[in-house]
Amino acid sequence: MSLDFDPNPIALPSGHYIGGAFVDLPGEAIEVVRPSDHQPMSPIHDGGKAAVERAVEAAKAALAATRWGKVSPLERAKVLHRFANAVEANGEYLSRLEALGSSRLISATSVRDAPRTAGVIRYYAEYCDKLEGIVTATDADTLSLVKNEPYGIVGAVVPWNFPLITAAWKFAPALAAGNAVVMKTSELTPHSLLALASIAVEAGLPAGLFNVVNGLGHTTGSAIVRHPDIRKISFTGSTATGAVIMTQAAQSGMKPVTLELGGKSPMVVFADIADIEATAAKVATGFMDNAGQVCTAGSRLVVERGIADRLLEAIEARCRAIRPGPTWSEATTFAPIISRRQAERIDRLVRQTIAEGAEARIGGTPLEARNEGSFYAPTILEGVTDAMTGFREEFFGPVLSVHRFDEVEEGLALAAHPTYGLAASVHTTDIRKALKAADEIEAGMVWVNQHGRGPEFTFPAGGFKASGFGKDMGRAGIEAFTRQKAVWVNYAQ
Ligand code: NAD
C-alpha cells in the first residue's frame, strides 16, 4: 500500500498540553508552516513564564497526588508499556503528523520515527526496576547505601530536526526514573509532540506528569531553564544555545544540565574498503539524510588519496539521483530544508566558503522552488582549509567537504576538529586501523563501516567538547534523570 497521504485533512492539536488537557493561554502568535510547501499549519502561542508556571504547578500536583517517584517500578513500567502500545496504535497518525510538520519523509517517519518513539518508551519501561543502587565498602557495624532518586520536576528543550525521537530520548527515561516533565518543543515543529503528550495521558499516564509548552527559546525555553522548582535541564540543540542554557542553569539554582549539541563529524575512508559503491552509499546517506539536518551528519569526507576520485564519482552519481519533493509522497527521497531562513543560512555559508577559496564539485546553490518549499542541492566542496567558514561552522544542510590523505596519521589528524567532537565514522577492512582510529578520534560516538546510529536503543548518544556532555539513550540516558543519595547507617550500638 502506498504511504502517500493528503496533507490537508490531518487533525492538528492546538494549545499547550498541560495537566492532561490542551490549554489556550495568551501570548504572541507564532506562525507554523509545513516545510514542504510553506503552507500554514495551526499557529501556536508563545507561552512564556505564565505557561511554564502552569506546567510546573500541574507537575507538582501530579507528583503529590501520584507519588510517581515512589510508585512501584513495576507499576510505572506497566503505565509506560501502555503508552508505547498507544503510540503504536496511533502510528499512522503520528508518522503523518511528523512528516507534515517537519522535514522528515513519510518513508522514514512510518518505519523509523514513529515506531522508534514507541520503542524508546518500551526500552525505558523495562528499565524501571533495573536502576539498582550500591552498598559501598565500610567498617563493621555500618551500612553505606547509594540510592538513585528522581529529581522531581525536570525540564527539557528540543530542536526541530527529529521532533518525536529527540523528545522521546528525554521524556521516556525521565518518566521511567520517576520524574515529571515540562518540555518545550521547537517553535517550528510543535504539533507531533503535543499529540504524543495527549496520547500518553489517554493511555493512562497520570495527567500532569508530561507537559508540553509552546513558545520561543528566549522566552518560554528560558523560563523552563530558570524556573526554581525545575531541578534538572536536558537540552538538544545548537552549541550557541547550549552555552546560554548552561549559564542560565548555573545562575538559577546551579541546575545540572545534559547538553546534546552541534557537530562537524568526519567520515574517514581508507583505500582498503571492500566495495566502493557500498561505501559511497554510506557516505552519501551520511551527509544527505534529512538533507543534512542531522546533528551527527558526516559533513567532512577524509579519504585516502588512492580511491578518492573513484569514491567521489560514485557519491556524485547518488547526488544526481535524488528525488526532492513533498514529505508526504513516498516517491520523495530528498528532504526539504526546515525553513527559508535555514536554507538562506546554508547558502550564505557555502558562498562564503567558496569566496574564501573552496570550489564546488557539485551543487552550491538552492534547488529551484518546488511547491514553494526550500530545497538545497547536495553540495561537495573541494579545497576547504581549516581557516575557512565551511570547516569551522556547522552547515546543518547537505554539504560535504573533501580532504585527502596519504598516511594513516595524516588522515586521523585531518579528522580532528578544534571545536566539535560529536561523532565520526571510519571505513576500512583493516581492524587495526579501525580500532586505532576509534581510539584516536576525539568524539562521543564512533562508527566503523557505517555512519549514523542503527535502530538499537542501547547506544548512548552525546558528544565531547563544544558538542556537549552527558548522554541520551542507553543506561546513561536514564541515569541522567536520577541523582545519587548516599545514606550512612551506624548500627554499632
Ligand atoms: P536551537 O539551539 O536554535 O534551538 C533548539 C531549541 O532551543 C528550540 O526549541 C529553541 O526554541 C530553544 N531555545 C533557543 N534559545 C533558547 C534559550 N535562550 N533558552 C532556552 N531554549 C532556547 O537549535 P535548532 O536550530 O532548533 O536545532 C539545530 C541544532 O541542534 C544543530 O546545531 C544540531 O546539531 C543540534 N542537534 C543536536 C543533536 C545531538 O544529539 N547532539 C540532535 C539534534 C540536533
Radius of gyration: 23 Å
How is the biggest beta sheet arranged?
A: 7 strands, mixed
In terms of per-residue confidence, which ranges show pLDDT below 50 for 5 or more consecutive residues? none
Which CATH top level class of the largest domain fits? Alpha Beta
CA-CA gap between termini: 74 Å
Question: If strands are numbered along the chain, what order do they take across the biggest sheet?
Answer: 14-17-18-13-12-20-21
Number of strands: 24
What is the mean predicted local confidence, pLDDT? 97
Q: How many H/I helices?
A: 15
Q: Any ligands, ions or cofactors bound here, and which?
A: nicotinamide-adenine-dinucleotide
Which percent range fits the helix content?
A: 25-40%
Overall shape: globular
- Structural class by sheet pairing and helices: alpha/beta
The name of the CATH topology of the largest domain is Aldehyde Dehydrogenase, Chain A, domain 1
What is the name of the CATH architecture of the largest domain? Answer: 3-Layer(aba) Sandwich
Strand content: 15-25%
Q: Could you give me the name of the CATH homologous superfamily of the largest domain?
A: Aldehyde Dehydrogenase, Chain A, domain 1
Please indicate the count of domains: 2
Q: Would you kindly provide a written description of the structure presented here, covering whatever features stand out?
A:
With 493 residues, the chain is α/β, with parallel strands linked by helices. It has two domains: 16-261 and 468-486, Aldehyde Dehydrogenase, Chain A, domain 1, CATH 3.40.605.10; 265-456, Aldehyde Dehydrogenase, Chain A, domain 2 (3-Layer(aba) Sandwich). It has 15 helices and 24 strands. The protein has helices at 48-66, 73-89, 91-101, 106-125, 163-176, 191-202, 217-226, 239-251, 276-288, 305-320, 340-355, 389-392, 408-415, 431-440, 474-479, and strands spanning 16-18, 21-23, 29-30, 44-45, 134-136, 142-150, 153-157, 180-184, 210-213, 232-236, 257-260, 265-269, 298-304, 359-362, 366-370, 373-376, 379-382, 399-405, 420-421, 423-427, 445-448, 464-465, 468-469, 482-490. The strands form seven sheets. Strands 14-17-18-13-12-20-21 form a seven-stranded mixed β-sheet, sandwiched between helices. Helix 1 (48-66) runs parallel beside helix 7 (217-226), helix 3 (91-101) packs antiparallel against helix 6 (191-202) and helix 9 (276-288) crosses helix 10. The N and C termini lie far apart (74 Å). The site of nicotinamide-adenine-dinucleotide has 32 residues, from helix 7 and helix 8.
